[in-house]
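Researcher: Here's the sequence for the chain we discussed earlier.
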Amino acid sequence: MKTLDQIEPRIGISAAPYVITNSGSYYLTTNLYVSLGNAIVISTNDVSLNLNGYTISSDESPPTGYGIMINSGLRNITIENGVIKGFVTNDGHGNFDGVGFRMGIGRIYPVYNVYVKNVTVVGCAASGIYLGENEPTVIENCVVESVGAYGLAAGIVKNSLAYDCKYGAVLGGDDLQLLGFFI
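Model: Thanks. This is the structure I predict for it:
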């Protein structure tokens, strides 16, 4: 009989910053914190990243890093089940300031077949989850709160919530599909 590791080998992530350079399944084993830059960078195709209910946070000042960055040209990426937290807030007049991440989950243009589900992003200086408005990407069952640009940007946004976003809750191209979306 095969073990679970033989059927689906997974790699645990217990510290940040962390760069994913090999295809496969990854999961967080604890909360992650960075004081500078990106927490996780995905640099290869065919990656599944399960945040496992944990939180990725930063108190970088000024915010320049990403909670999770997806490098250019990548495809077949899934990110799910966790929280990305910064401490950027809205002063009530549309000015966002504070420490943390520049972006919760973002990409370097373009990416393909990226799926983000069950992720909450709070308090980023720019966008919450930005996968590109004209790219084959999906955001599902996500929440974004208090970000200094767009809340969500993807080809399809399903059953998600975005609020207190400076430039708008959703950015999408001509073929944007909003399904069960709440602002």
